[in-house]
Design a protein that fits this description.
Blueprint (H helix, E strand, L loop, with lengths): L9 H27 L1 H27 L8 H24 L6 H27 L10 H14 L3 H25 L4 H7 L2 H13 L10 H5 L1 H7 L10 H27 L17 H27 L1 H11 L1 H14 L1
């Protein structure tokens, strides 16, 4: 009686092992650099990867969107209106606040924005639930009402939550891409992605009592208040600013690494600059030229962003983080379509 011998799994497991090792190395390296050099690391990562990661994100989205909206036209229309409208409203809030006489009335603008955001997301979830694969989406409305009530009690809470939740969305999108193209890698991914909250816990234990971070150069020191504001130190007053700046820089680097390295290697069916795998580009020659023009324009924006960072880092970073709300919002309907 012969016994079948299973073939060695070494060669087949090598890419999965390389993926796991690369992810853990990225997370550990980002945590170490963010913990020791939070200001310099934050400044460097935004300068290097803010523009490129947006370009890769747009390129990936073009490769996944259908060539024609069809029955999904309403979903995409609501998505576009919400992305643009909520981004403009978010950018306008700081300019509108001085027009209100009382501080409470001014702060309520953020509560209003949060309410609009929540019901926009709820509407998208409900519309998504009515397309295949279907699910019961009725629960989303009472949940949106409950969170909206909390937003009026603490108007700044939801914008701060989005600051830290946004990088996590890239990890969810990576999981959905693995489910589509590398389903046998997902168990490995679920095991290694746990290092992210674990590293955050280690950073908190190490930095919870640390004073505000310092830097060896006057240039870096000048940005410490701005970085603290971006990380929500003005709202989370009982948390170490050092930890908040480090945690924000760490999560942003993980986010950038997922979009610039991991998702392109796993999810793109062609080289990033090749358009033949993009559904819209296959419609006809005009659409192909339009898609190529969009990608070229995006590359020019990346170069312009680098130049502007070099000329005036502070102003460029401030403008970028205001406009960055657009791609934060854009990830929500995209993620819903991948569920």
């Amino acid at each position: 009686m012969s016994v079948a011998v299973a073939p060695a799994a070494g060669p087949a497991a090598a890419p999965r092992l390389a993926f796991a090792t690369g992810f853990v190395a990225l997370a550990v390296g980002a945590a170490a650099l963010a913990g020791w050099f939070p200001i310099e690391f934050s400044l460097a990562t935004v300068f290097l990867f803010a523009g490129p990661h947006n370009w890769f994100e747009a390129r990936y989205a073009l490769g996944r969107l259908p060539a024609r909206a069809g029955k999904l036209w309403g979903f995409f229309a609501l998505s576009a209106v919400g992305i643009v409208g909520l981004t403009v409203a978010y950018a306008a809030v700081p300019f509108l606040m001085p027009l209100f006489g009382r501080t409470a009335d001014a702060v309520s603008l953020y509560a209003l924005w949060s309410t609009l955001f929540l019901f926009w997301v709820a509407a998208l979830v409900w519309m998504r639930s009515r397309t295949n694969p279907r699910f019961d989406g009725g629960w989303v409305w009472p949940l949106a009402c409950l969170i909206a009530a909390g937003a009026w009690l603490s108007p700044y809470a939801l914008p701060i939550v989005l600051v830290y939740l946004h990088p996590v969305m890239a990890l969810v999108l990576l999981d959905r891409e693995l489910a589509r193209s590398r389903p046998h890698w997902r168990r490995t991914y679920w095991a290694i992605v746990g290092c992210v909250p674990l590293l955050l816990l280690v950073m908190w234990l190490h930095l919870r009592g640390a004073p505000e971070p310092t830097a060896p150069s006057d240039f870096a020191v000048a940005f410490a208040p701005t970085l603290a504001d971006h990380s929500g130190a003005w709202f989370l007053r009982d948390v170490s600013p050092h930890f908040l700046i480090a945690a924000h820089a760490f999560l942003e680097m993980v986010h950038y690494g997922v979009w610039v390295v991991l998702i392109p290697l796993i999810g793109m069916r062609s080289l990033p600059w090749q358009t033949h795998a993009i559904p819209a580009a296959r419609r006809n020659r005009k659409w192909a030229r339009g898609v190529a023009a969009v990608l070229l324009f995006g590359a020019l924006v990346v170069l312009t962003l680098w130049v502007c960072f070099g000329l005036d880092y502070g102003t460029t970073r401030h403008v970028y983080f205001v406009v960055a709300m657009l791609h934060v919002l854009a990830e929500i309907p995209f993620l819903l379509r991948m569920v």
